[in-house]
Amino acid sequence: MWANGLKWMFLIVGTLIGAGYASGRELWQFFGAESNVAIFLFTALFTISCFVIMNLAFTQKTTQYVPLLTTLVGPKLARAYDWIILSYLFSTTTIMLAGAGATLEVYNIPFWLGMTGTAAMVVLLFLKDTQGMTTINAYLIPVLILSLVSILLVFQYSLGFTFSLDLSHQQNWPSAITFTSLNILPVVAVVSAIGNQMKHKGEIWIAAIGSGVLMGSISYLYNESLLQIAGEIMFYEIPLFVILKQYPSIMVIAMSVLLWLAIYTTAGAGIFGLISRLRGYLRGESWLIAMFLLAIMAPLTTFGFSSMIAVLYPLYGAVNLYILVCIILYPFFHHPSLNRNKKAD
């Protein structure tokens, strides 16, 4: 139970900690100053959402997200959100490829080479069908998390630890709702693909609480660090490089590896979700489908990493608000006691 619960937890976290998040660009887009309450609220909303989604996937033994969407929003809206999720998975995977090119440009590696090299590595994930995706996350995500937290703690140590727990004048709390709604779509897509693989309800508790607390803690630590370099962020495509600019080159190398791992796992999760949904339409081996999808995405990376995040992420956050409300309210409207009362009537 514990092993599977942790595996699903790392799958969820690996889906979210992509180039946008690990680089700091996504967090700065939504949080920043006066965001302590927002981050605490995000932690609670995300934990509840993960639990509801995983519980539904486990109950329905899903292999893709359409049945789960239909349960949450009804058949008509499910069709609309089906297209939204497909669009989200496609566009965010494209952003990951653009992030790969931007990250490796630090070493004067051409953008196209960094992008295509990462795409090739994603294809390798699916040589053993979709099992390779969940297996690689179980090994890479703990390394990714430890690396990111270590870098941020070293930076905080150099400043004498600047953490603030001030809960007054917290006017940015609505960002928690849009940030959660942005991140809930990939969770729906990826968790739905493994609903038939969950064996025990205990796995749900471990994965939901673990991923919520982990994402909330890292978000707080990261946001507090970004606040210390707020004046310089606008001049950098990847804000985390501002934190590292005074450090030895070995730290920059470590950061580049970290960002690439984040890109790799999130791009893999995006392709994983797309393959699970498109199985009935695209025939062939998983790695061939992955190669086909990545080939379509490649030309779109020319729009730029930070530009795509600035435009698409807030847009998806707003569009997904309704499905977030449906997820949060689902346990209240489908509580067993309510169902018994309806039957009695």
UniProtKB/TrEMBL annotation:
KW Transmembrane helix (keyword) present: yes
Superkingdom of this protein's organism: Bacteria
Segments traversing the membrane: 38-59, 80-103, 109-127, 139-161, 173-192, 204-222, 250-275, 287-309, 315-333
Entry keyword annotation includes Transmembrane helix: yes
Keyword vocabulary terms for this entry: Membrane, Transmembrane, Transmembrane helix
Protein name in the entry: Membrane protein YkvI
Gene source species: Alkalicoccobacillus murimartini
